[in-house]
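Researcher: Structure prediction, please.
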Amino acid sequence: MDAKQTEKVDKYEDVVQFGNAGWRHRYYSTKFFVRSAEQMAELQVKIRQAYVEGLAWVFAYYYKGCVSWEWYYPFHYAPHAADLVNCDKVKIEWNMGQPLCPLQQLMAVLPKQSAHAVPSCYRYLLGSPTSPIIDLYPSNFKLDVNGAAFAWMGVNLLPYIEMPRLLKAMADADENETNLTINE
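Model: Predicted structure follows.
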């Protein structure tokens, strides 16, 4: 953890103001950029579906094994408990998909500062301005510290990995590699 992450967060604008009248609208308009009641209703259906899927995915993972290699939670924030009303009506269907290879998994989760942990043929993908997927590994990104005491408690607003793009970029890098080993 670097010094910036351990800094106490003293100043931030508490836009949401949990507990004060209108907090729910402020939460969704600030965190999800919802502007109208229609958008909020649509979002609540989507976020309820995704959140319940996430709960079911985790439960299944620990008690049955992986039910989908492709599933991910498509939001940076959770819904409020009040928005989980009727969650028993959520229908879940899993697409099993295929697991990633270990190096693909690393490339999907490591930050660019960990480029040393992957074979050299992939390092440029994490940090070179000419990388076809450099936008997936930003140097500068927003950190939402709303309600957090320390920076490490904030929400890193990173882009979601676009797996087809990542896999294609890695395949292209593989073509130029004659000795792909983990121990470089």
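Model: The mean pLDDT is 88.
Researcher: Thanks, that helps.
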